[in-house]
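Q: I'm writing up a methods section and want to include an example of the input and output format. Could you take the sequence below and give the corresponding predicted structure tokens, formatted cleanly so I can copy it straight into the document?
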Amino acid sequence: MIFEQIACGGCQSYLLGCDETRAAILIDPNLTQMDRYLGLSAKEGLRIRYVLDTHTHADHFSAAKELGKSLGVPVVASKLSPAPYASFRLDDGELLRVGAMRLRALHTPGHTRDSLCVLVEDRIFTGDTLLIGATGRTDLPTGDPDALYDSLFNIVLKQDPDLKVYPAHDYKGRSHSTIAQEIETNPRLKKRDRDEFIVMMNQLNLDAPAHLTEALRTNMSGGKTVAQMLGEASAQVSFISMLDLAERVRRNDQDLLLLDVREREAFASGHIPGAQNLPRGQLELRVNKELPDPTRRILVYCEFGQISTLAAATLRELGYSNAVALDGGMKAWRESGLPFTRM
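A: Here is the clean output for your methods example:
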């Protein structure tokens, strides 16, 4: 087996390749690491045939949908996965063939309803079911400490003690463990009584992951992240620097229409001289009346420079091909000591 472990901020993903056929699978890919996966597979002469998520992630954005689409390969997940883009669903005990490799799925709910572990050769990929020195939490949507108890003590820990354990997360720089080591040293596995284990899991009081709602929304539905939307918008528009705009304001440049897309209250508290206010939420409904000339050069700005990027891209889609965005926002404009006006 050709094996690469890719760490990113505590998240772990894995590239497994068949050394006979060069067919490969990616397990738990992270959206921020897509180029890295493609580079590693090219370096090893591998052809990625599948991408697999061990469960619905709540702490990072899965790259499964994007990789599946760009590579034209199936997205593999549990039969209980809510992801509509998962086209290959595994049931408990089923095998996935990747070249000469055989990957066996184990249905292991608890961290999430759709959690599964994957056995291949001398190792087990445990997702968030079993971590090094810990277990997956059960206080997030579809988590169930009673189900996790069964998954751990009646399934995972009954596997070969020598199996190497590769989890989906580790925040202490460790690469792997073994079933035997976890049985011996993992403090959460010392609670072998079901009721004691459930009480322990219910009293962990862990902080919610960053971007929890957004991660669950995008990973469950296949929707876009905010970063993806901003990236796509940025690729469609050009920008003008604050210093360039300041010079145009000083000259009272009439060739440029300044459009402030913040809410009216924010606009009234301070805006760039000469700007016109059209809140982003009303843009599509009022654009024909407020911006009658689609050939006009329009510079859009907001408070931080993100909503204005989306608004400028929307204007271009609506036919305002000369719409551009300010590189920055009103906050940076004020902090730079540039002139602004109040209503």
